[in-house]
Amino acid sequence: MKKGLLIVLSGPSGVGKGTVIKELMKNDDLKLSYSISMTTRKPRNGEVDGVNYFFVDRDTFLKAIDDGELLEHAEFVGNMYGTPVSYVEKLRNEGRNVLLEIEVQGAMQVKKKCPDALSIFIIPPSMEELASRIRGRNSEPEEIVQQRLDKAKKEMEMVTQYKYVVCNDDVILASDIISAIIKRHMQIKSN
Amino acid sequence: MKKGLLIVLSGPSGVGKGTVIKELMKNDDLKLSYSISMTTRKPRNGEVDGVNYFFVDRDTFLKAIDDGELLEHAEFVGNMYGTPVSYVEKLRNEGRNVLLEIEVQGAMQVKKKCPDALSIFIIPPSMEELASRIRGRNSEPEEIVQQRLDKAKKEMEMVTQYKYVVCNDDVILASDIISAIIKRHMQIKSN
Question: For the whole prediction, is pTM greater than 0.90?
């Protein structure tokens, strides 16, 4: 069994990462699996430990960081989220290509720990288009939209840190291009 | 018969356009055809009019420009080269996707006349890699290599004028990505 790839996918909020990933997941040849994150957040109704998340308390989370058990981690609104190395490695050893949809900061942590990770950054066709997608998606106040755009602009500056940059002008084409990238790396790895 | 696409491919000298195109040409599904250029240059031994080039005198060439019969044109070392609209249209009307490998200036002329042209710019993984490719290809004096690199840097600034930017780190992957772009546009056109 060939070890699977580790694929890091980032891109500004509103760029359409979710739709692209949904399209990629339809293609079984890509052997994609999601990783399961570890979090200190309390389970919501119906969420199952080991399925939606690995639910842990803060001490366990901090110990996991200290012990180098997390590929990356970040804090959002008081809760910690991270990617356990062991689960990612388990999937990769089963031949699955593990897809991490993470923010730029997390991606940089992964890059340090796994230099062979395949990093892909999705960009919008233009900032105007990104703005209109963000406006179209929710009916958020203009102030929030501007905050998202400012954040997006900062994230876009990190684009050079990624191995591949794919423009999401057309979801099918963006996922076709990412498929080509993944397939080529599966091929290189198996040679 | 669906009208074929017009595909403009540019990229700095040394980036590997030729190798990528050779790879693309292997794939019959892409229905790629080269255009034949018009030139004032004298035929070399074995070159056939209407096969290698449309050979014309300078007056005929200048008249073709005036009459709007050229999609783009440029002068190199005293000879004029251009792309005849009529031949490109003939191929496209036969359902062929016409590939123009032209310099940035020519590509901008095509863009003006054919806003539906699919423009693709091939970039090197880095300027260091481009330099080493240029150095590896010929044993040119360092001065010439530097001139090529300076020209490449200027050309790279035009990258935003192109619809797609593809990095040629790996020839197979670069041509796979360009194939995906062409196929997707064939699909969109036929919908």
Answer: no
Integer Rg of chain B from CA: 17
For the sheet containing B79-84, what is the strand order?
Answer: B53-55, B37-39, B79-84, B70-76
Q: Which residue of A has its CA nearest to B184?
A: A173
Rounded distance between C-alpha atoms, residue B83 and residue B64, angstroms: 10
Residue A189 has pLDDT above 80, yes or no: no
Beta-carbon separation of B167 and A164 below 8 A? yes
Using pLDDT thresholds of 50, 70 and 90, give the confidence band for residue B134. confident
**B contacts of A181 (beta carbons < 8 Å):** 173, 177
For chain B, helix, strand, coil in percent to 5 are 50, 25, 30
Residue B112, class by beta-carbon neighbours within 10 Å (0-12 exposed, 13-18 middle, 19+ buried)?
A: exposed
What is the spatial distance between Cα B6 and Cα B91, in angstroms, rounded to a whole number?
A: 10
Binary contact (A177, B180; C-beta < 8 A)? yes
CB pairs under 8 A between A and B: 33
B184 and chain A in contact, CB less than 8 A: yes
Tell me the residue type at B139.
S
Write down the ipTM of this complex.
Answer: 0.75
In 3-state terms, what secondary structure has residue A82?
Answer: strand
If pLDDT is split at 50, 70 and 90, which confidence band does A134 have? Answer: confident
A177/B181 Cβ within 8 A:
yes
